[in-house]
Design brief:
mainly alpha, 114 residues, elongated, 5 helices, Four Helix Bundle (Hemerythrin (Met), subunit A)
Length: 114
């Protein structure tokens, strides 16, 4: 999350979005590992679905995960968009929203881990 916030402040909104997705993914994987399972894949939504087998995951977190997952590939690859680089495809407001979503998912995961 620290990298996401630095990227936001520096105007690298694509990296802020991707870093937010990564932070949420790692938090969800930590919960799955705590449950004694193997955490495969990169979809925060799928990871939360897996966690949902043992803990209640509210729909708002799943909606946030769907948004974060959309930043996993196109925020990183220069050829992911028909025209322009990822740096031209993400806005400040979007980056702030993704950071907020990741923070909510991380907070949920911290609660499960404690």
């Amino acid at each position: 999350m620290e990298l996401a916030n630095i990227a936001l402040k520096q105007g690298y909104y694509d990296w802020a979005c991707f870093s937010s997705q990564q932070a949420a993914e790692k938090a969800a994987k930590a919960v799955i590992i705590k449950l004694g399972a193997q955490a495969w894949g990169h979809s925060v939504y799928d990871l939360l679905e897996n966690i949902g087998k043992k803990y209640k995951v509210n729909g708002g977190l799943k909606e946030a995960a769907l948004e974060l997952d959309k930043a996993y590939i196109p925020a990183r690859y220069p050829d992911a968009h028909p025209n322009g680089s990822p740096s031209t495809r993400y806005s400040c407001n979007e980056a702030k929203r993704m950071i907020k979503y990741a923070e909510k998912i991380i907070s949920f995961c911290e609660g499960v881990l404690s």
